[in-house]
Amino acid sequence: MTGSKRVRCDGGGGALGHPVTWLDMGEDDFVICKYCDRVFKLDPIAPIGGHH
Fold first, then answer.
1. What tens digit of pLDDT does each residue of 12-49 get?
2. Closest CA to 36 of 13, 3, 5
3. pTM, entire model
4. Are strands 39-41 and 30-32 parallel, antiparallel or unpaired?
5. Whether 20 contacts 33, CB under 8 Å
6. Strand partners, 1
C-alpha cells in the first residue's frame, strides 16, 4: 500500500534486485512492476501525494 500514485521499485534484495524503476498509476489505483510483478496499491485513506 502506498500514499503516492508514483512509486519506486528496485525488486528488493539489494544487489539481487532489478534496476530502479519509477512507476506511475495514472488513472488507476494500482500499478504492477514490469520486472518483478510487485503490485503497488493506492491506500484509499492516505492523502494523495505522499513521499517518494
1. 877 788 999 999 999 999 999 999 999 999 998 877 65
2. 13
3. 0.79
4. antiparallel
5. no
6. none
Which long-range contacts link 12-19 to residues 24+ away (Cβ below 8 Å)? Answer: 12/36, 12/38
3-class SS of residue 14: helix
Backbone angles phi, psi at 33, to 5 degrees: -65, 130
Neighbour count for residue 14 (Cβ, 10 Å)? 7
C-alpha cell at 11: 525488486
Q: What is the total residue count of the chain?
A: 52
- The CA distance from 26 to 23, in Å, is 9
